[in-house]
């Protein structure tokens, strides 16, 4: 009787593991499809939008390059607000500067390596005033990704102390495609000490 119970429990456990594994696989697949869909939509924008950096010369557009989606680079970061916030000027790609307000530090780890990024708040008048801005560089910069860094869109958290950073959504500033744009460069403290093999790669 006991032997039968053990066999039954083993079968049930195997079934549970199989179901859980299948759900995890579905979640990963759904996540990957979401990222790929975003990339398709961006490609359509680049080819057709009047405010695309390729507007007027779409025949030159050769498509964007990406790393494959990898959930390892979707991290939950601890958010540490800056108490004595100050204005910071970031250098831009056209040798000018752009002002931002310090907002918070996002602390996280990838492959056991602790990292920290400084998030800024946009203060210029306009539709983006009050939203957050994050520019970073990493060990892939100039090798596999744009040498002047990449951007990551983040939303202000509502009463919580963590924030999700999905580097699969990292993208190039417009000056990576068109030198007529002025793009803020990452501050020194946002140069990560690891390769972030996620998001957009260097343009052709």
Provide the fold topology:
Elements: H1 2-48, E1 74-81, E2 87-91, E3 97-110, E4 113-122, E5 132-133, E6 135-136, E7 150-151, E8 162-166
Q: Your description of this structure?
A:
This protein is α+β, with helices and mostly antiparallel strands and 204 residues long. The chain has two domains: 1-61, no CATH class; 64-190, no CATH class. It contains one helix and eight strands. Strands 1, 2, 3, 4, 5 and 8 form a six-stranded antiparallel sheet that branches. Strands 6-7 form a two-stranded antiparallel sheet.
Any idea what the radius of gyration is? Answer: 21 Å
Number of strands: 8
Largest sheet: 6 strands, antiparallel
Q: Which residue ranges are poorly predicted, with pLDDT under 50 across at least 5 consecutive positions?
A: 1-26
Sequence of secondary-structure elements: HEEEEEEEE
The general outline is globular
End-to-end CA span: 68 Å
Number of helices: 1
Q: Bin the strand percentage.
A: 15-25%
Indicate the percent of residues in helices: 10-25%
The pLDDT mean sits at: 88
Counting helices, strands and paired strands, the structural category is: alpha+beta
Number of domains: 2
């Amino acid at each position: 009787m006991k032997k039968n119970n053990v066999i039954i429990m083993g079968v049930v456990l195997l079934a549970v593991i199989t179901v859980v594994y299948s759900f995890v696989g579905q979640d990963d697949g759904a996540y990957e499809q979401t990222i790929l869909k975003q990339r398709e939509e961006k490609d359509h924008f680049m080819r057709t939008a009047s405010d695309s950096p390729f507007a007027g010369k779409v025949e030159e557009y050769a498509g964007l390059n990406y790393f494959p989606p990898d959930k390892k680079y979707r991290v939950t970061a601890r958010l540490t607000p800056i108490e004595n916030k100050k204005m910071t000027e970031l250098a831009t790609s056209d040798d000018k500067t752009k002002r931002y307000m310090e907002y918070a530090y996002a602390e996280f780890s990838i492959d056991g390596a602790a990292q920290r990024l400084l998030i800024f708040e946009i203060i210029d008048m306009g539709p983006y005033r009050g939203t957050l801005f994050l520019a970073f560089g990493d060990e892939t910069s100039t090798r596999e990704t744009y040498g002047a860094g990449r951007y990551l869109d983040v939303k202000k958290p509502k009463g919580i102390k963590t924030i999700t950073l999905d580097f699969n959504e990292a993208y190039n500033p417009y000056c990576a495609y068109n030198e007529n744009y002025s793009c803020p460069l990452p501050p020194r403290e946002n140069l990560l000490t690891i390769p972030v093999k996620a998001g957009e790669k260097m343009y052709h």
